[in-house]
Amino acid sequence: MRSFGKRGIHYFQRLNDANIPSQIIENGQNRVVEASLTLIRERAKLKGELLRALGGVIASTTLLGVPLGHNSSFLQGPAFAPPRIREAIWCDSTNSTTEQGKDLHDPRLLTDVGDVPIQELRDCGINDEKLMAIISDSVKLVMEEDPLRPLILGGDHSISFPAVRAVSEKLGGPVDILHLDAHPDIYHSFEGNKYSHASSFARIMEGGYARRLLQVGLRSITKEGREQGKKFGVEQHEMHTFSEDRHQLENLKLGQGVKGVYISVDVDCLDPAFAPGVSHIEPGGLSFRDVLNILQNLQGNVVGADVVEFNPQRDTVDGMTGMVAAKLVRELSAKISK
């Protein structure tokens, strides 16, 4: 699994070894990048124009898939998640109404601009630093089209760094982040990879993109995770104290004095009884209703969100985790759109 997606990178390494002029390779890469961004830009423009023509929309959730899995430290299956989540969103086994009574078939609630073509970009030899910039640019293209607000479908958790960076830079200041996860993902550099899915929130805090970071559902946290949390002033809520913290966490008020609230949901925040299809199975987590209570009761202007780390390759119980991820997307859409 760790070799997934390396074929294209190795191909371009061989071209370099063969003394192919770097300008030829760079020009080709730039064309692919521009084509990738153009498709997202034009789809976002179309959706924005339609919503503005409908009128009366302050904010509309827009799905952007980022099928990236190679920054996972264990399994790379989350790269296959975005299409499976979309399939589950529209599955005929349930209806299109959210718990807040909003209908997903209403284009003012939910639109979709497709996926960042991660594997195609990597096949062209695009490295992670540039890939992160492309993800950020893609999120910004969505945000340029008022009233669209991005809800990113991961992918492993490394995508939260470029997504939050884009939201913060586009809005012109830091946001508050609600991060639901079994792990704090705040290592300085995990296994030598500064873009690891276990390091995304270190990059976010280093960059000054968040004023306040609340991490909820933690139950696999190392000494470094706690030290990094203290270093960055992170509010870390571990599961062994959840019963004591429940009232506070189910009545959060965030985003005052900053540009808004960003929500990042790692599916493994849930106990594996509710969501077994994840790479890192950590017993003792949140129930699905715990998560919905936290999200639905949150007071704040949600300007972006992501749902990450669903691994379809481990979703062996009749697609249950796919439906869980889809339900999270549906309810987040109801929270964001207005």
Q: How would you describe what is shown here?
A:
InterPro entries: Ureohydrolase (IPR006035), Ureohydrolase_dom_sf (IPR023696), Ureohydrolase_Mn_BS (IPR020855). The chain is an alpha/beta fold and 338 residues long. The protein has 11 helices and 8 strands. α2 (22-54) packs parallel to α5 (128-143) and α3 crosses α11. The longest helix is centred in the first third of the chain and has 33 residues, at 22-54. The chain is globular.
Notable traits:
globular, arginine metabolism, Arginase, Chain A, metal-binding, alpha/beta, agmatinase activity
| Sequence stretches where pLDDT stays below 50 over 5 or more residues | none
Q: Could you tell me the strand content as a percent range?
A: 15-25%
- Give the helix level as a range of percent: 40-55%
Give the CA-based shape: globular
Name the assembly state.
single chain
The name CATH uses for the topology is Arginase, Chain A
* Strand numbers in spatial order across the main sheet: 2-1-3-8-7-4-5-6
User: Helical region count?
Assistant: 11
C-alpha-based Rg, rounded: 19 Å
Q: How widely separated are the two ends? A: 41 Å
Could you spell the SSE succession in H and E letters?
HHEHEHHEHEHEHEHEHEH
Structural class category: alpha/beta
- Can you tell me the number of structural domains? 1
CATH architecture: 3-Layer(aba) Sandwich
Query: How many beta-strand runs?
Result: 8
CATH class: Alpha Beta
Biggest sheet record = 8 strands, parallel
Considering the protein shown, what is the CATH homologous superfamily? Answer: Ureohydrolase domain
Overall pLDDT score: 94
